[in-house]
Design a protein that fits this description.
With about 190 residues, this protein is an alpha+beta fold. It is built from three helices and eleven strands. The strands form two sheets. Strands 1, 2, 3, 4, 7, 8, 9, 10 and 11 form a nine-stranded mixed β-sheet that branches. It has a two-stranded antiparallel sheet with strand order 5-6. Strand 9 and strand 10 form a beta hairpin. The relative contact order is 0.27.
């Protein structure tokens, strides 16, 4: 995770399950990262909401953690998003151009339908199903990280998010990680 990292710098990829908060310190009730990873003295580089799943990066190097999480360094994040309905070219085009949200216009994103949908693990609890309304999967790549941004973007173009999975952060992916599992990653920001 950093070219200037010392030999003692460690980094980990974690597949955060749905319902787990992206922090180690409990606040109220719920599940925390300490329930998924028992490695001392690591910090989360970026966050995922409790109702989002997927890739989190963790490191024991505070400067590296800040570098990975800082939007100024434009580390692209790729999300797989199950939406209600099937987005048309106009909706995908709007995502690609940038969407107007209450806190301003988003940067342009890469957006495409995922055909076929990704082969994924079952989610607990499962996503609600409406037999009269189809769902589709979008791959959405962004280089910013506003609060609940992906969910707000898909809703703004008329396709509410049902399930959200972060598949990659820069060169790091979910590959080989079951929900709740973690693997040490080579530390490299360059």
């Amino acid at each position: 995770m950093g070219s200037a990292a010392s030999a003692s710098t460690r980094g980990f990829r974690l597949n955060k399950p749905d319902g787990v908060l992206s922090q180690f310190t409990p606040e109220g009730r719920g599940r925390w990262l300490k329930d998924c990873i028992a490695i001392p003295d690591v910090y989360v580089a970026g966050r995922l909401d409790a109702d989002s799943e997927g890739l989190l990066l963790l490191t024991n190097d505070g400067q590296l953690q800040a570098h990975i999480a800082d939007p100024r360094f434009k580390m692209e994040k790729i999300y797989w998003v199950q939406v209600e309905g099937v987005p048309d070219d106009a909706a995908l085009g709007a995502l690609r151009q940038g969407v107007s949200l209450k806190d301003g216009l988003t940067r342009p994103a890469r957006a495409s339908l995922m055909l076929p949908p990704p082969a994924l693990w079952e989610r607990e609890p499962p996503v609600r199903v409406r037999h009269a309304i189809p769902t589709a999967w979008i791959e959405l790549a962004i280089k910013e990280g506003r609060n609940r941004q992906v969910r707000r973007m898909t809703a703004a173009v008329g396709f509410p998010t049902l399930r959200l999975i972060r598949a990659a952060i820069g060169p790091y992916t979910l590959e080989g990680l079951a929900p709740g599992s973690n693997l040490e990653a080579e530390v490299n920001t360059g």
